[in-house]
Amino acid sequence: MVYILQQTLNALQLGSIYALIALGYTMVYGILTMINFAHGDLFMVGAFFCFIAATFLKLPFVPTLLVSMAGVALLGVLIERVAYRPLRQAPRVSAIITALGVGIFLENFTLVFSPYPQSVPQLIPNISWTIGGITVSSLQVIIILLSLVLMLLLDFLVRRTMVGMAMRAISWDKTIVPLMGVPLNLIISITFAIGTGLGAAAGTMYSLAFPVIDPYMGILIGWKAFIAAVVGGIGNIRGAMIGGFILGLVEIMVAAFLPSTYRDFVSFTLLLILLIFRPYGILGKPRPQKV
Amino acid sequence: MTTIPAEKKWLSQLQSLYDSILGRRWLLPVLLVLGLILSFAIPQFNLVNQYIQLILIYVGINIILTTSLNLINGYMGEFSVGHAGFMAVGAYISSILTTQVLPDAWLAWSFPLVVIAGGLGAALIGLVVAIPSFKTRGDYLAIVTLAFLMIVKSVIENIDAIGGPRGIPGIARLTTLPWTYFWTVAAVWVIRNLIYSRFGRGVLSIREDEIASDLMSVNTRQVKLLAFVISSFFAGVAGALFAHVLQFISPRVFDIIKSTDILIMVYLGGIGSLMGSILGATIYTVLLEVLRPLGMWRMVLMPLVLVLLMIYRPRGILGMREFRWFVPLQDLLGARQWRKKKEASDAAAS
Question: What is the domain extent for residue A96?
Fold first, then answer.
C-alpha cells in the first residue's frame, strides 16, 4: 500500500510535467488546428535556458524559472511569426512539416553549442520528509504545487478573462471573430507565448528532477505529451491536464510492477485501446461531419 | 518586329527541347534498360568510387520509402507517421532470416526471397494498422500510427532472441546496386500502376471526400486496407535492403526521427506525385551528403531550407503535379481533348 502511494506521488510528479507540455500542444491546436511538433523541442530549449541561467548566471530557482519561461515564450512567438504565420492559409500538412523542420532546427542548433549532455546544478535544497512511510522530497512538492498553480492560473485565464474569451472565440471561428474586432494575430501570439512558456516551465522542472539534459531529450517527451493531449481530447485544456496525469500514472505504475522496458509497450497499447472506445479522447467531443 | 533577348531565346529553346524529350515516351524503357546496365556496370568496373555507390543505394532505398509513404499520405490524404515501424519489421524479419535461419551458402541466391519475406511481414502488420483507419482519420490516425511505431520498437527491445536493445550485428552485405535498382523500379512501377487503376481512383476519392466516395459506392474499407498493405510491403522491402547495406540494425535505428526523415522527403518532393517523391528522396539524400563538410551545421541548415521551401512552395517541389511519362497515354489524350473542347466552347461563348 505504501509502495503504491509512493509510486502515485512519483506519478503525480511525472504527470504534472506531461500535463504542462500537453497544454502547449492543446492550446495551439485549439486555436490554429495545427499540431506544433516543435513544442517538445521548445521544452528542451526551456531546460537549456534553465541550465544556462543556473550555471553561468548563478541565479536561484525562481529567477531561473522566469528567465526560462520568458525566453522560450519569446522564442515561441518568434517561431509563430516567422515560420507558421505565412502558412496559415496553406494546406495543413505544410504547417506540420514546417513544425517538424523547426523542431529539427532547434535540436541541432542546440547540439552545435552543446555536443555533450549537460548536468544542471541543484537549485532546490534537497530535503525529504517521511510521512507514514512515504518519502516526499522538496523537489516533488515544488513541482506538483507549481504545476497545479500554473494550471489553475491558465484555467482562470481561459475561462474568466477577456483574453481567454477571445481565445475561445477564435478557436470557434477564425473568420467571423476578427470581424468583431478581436485582434487575431495578437491573440495567437499570446496563445503561443503562454503555451510555450508552460512548456519551458515543464523543461525547467524536468531538468531539476532528472538533471542530465541533452538536445534530443525533447523528442520522446514531446511526442508522449502530444499523446497525453490526444488522450484528453486535443483542443481541450482540462482534457490535456487529465491526459498528462493519466499518462504519468500509467508509465510509473507499469514501471513499478512490470519490467521497466515494458513501459512504452503497455502505455501505448492502452492508448490504442482507449482510442478504440473513445476516438476523440476523454473530454473531446466528436465534431459533426458536414456533408 | 520585337527582338527576343538572348537569354529568353536560350530559355525557350531549352523549353522546346524539354517538351520534345517529354513527347518521346519510348525513351522511358530505353532509360530504364540503360539504368539496369549501369547498375551492373558501376560496381563491376568501379565507374564511381565506393562512397558514391553507397549514396546511390541509399537514394534507391529512400525512393522506395518515399513513394510508398506517398501512397498513404499523398494520394490517400491520411497522415501516417509510422513508416519507420514497417521498415523495422521488414529489416528484422530479413536480418533474422539471413543471420540465424538460412545457412551462409544459400544467402546469395535467396536474398530476393528474404527481401520479399520482409515485405510480407511488414504488409501483415500494415493490415493490422489499417483497421483503426476505418473509423479514425486525420490527427487521431496519426496517433495510432505513432503508437504503432512505439509498440514495434518496444516489442523488439523486449525480445532477447533478436538482440533486444542491442540489435543484430554482423549482417551480410547483400544489398547490391542492381538489386536496389530493381526494387526501386518495381516499387515505382507498382504504385504508379495502382494509382492509375480503378483502385487508384478510389484512393484519390478518399483523399478528396471520404463520405462522398463512400456514397459513390467506393469500397473505402477495402481501398484503405489495400493501400496500407501495399505501402507497408514496400516499406518492409526498403527496410530489408537497408539492413543489408548498413549491416547492423537496432531498435534505435527505426525511431521517430527516421519516420520524420521519410515524411520530410515526401512533402519536400510534393504529395500526390511520384516524380515528386523520386526528386524529394534524391535531393534530400544527396543534399545531406553534399553538405557533410559543414559538420554539425549541416543539420541546422537543412531544416531551415525545408522551412523556407514550405513557406514559399507549400505544396513541395512537384505537389499534385505529375511527370508526363508516368501518366497513362489515354489520360493525357483525354485531358488534351477536354482542353480542346473547353477552348472551343470558350471561343464560342465569347
Answer: 2-277
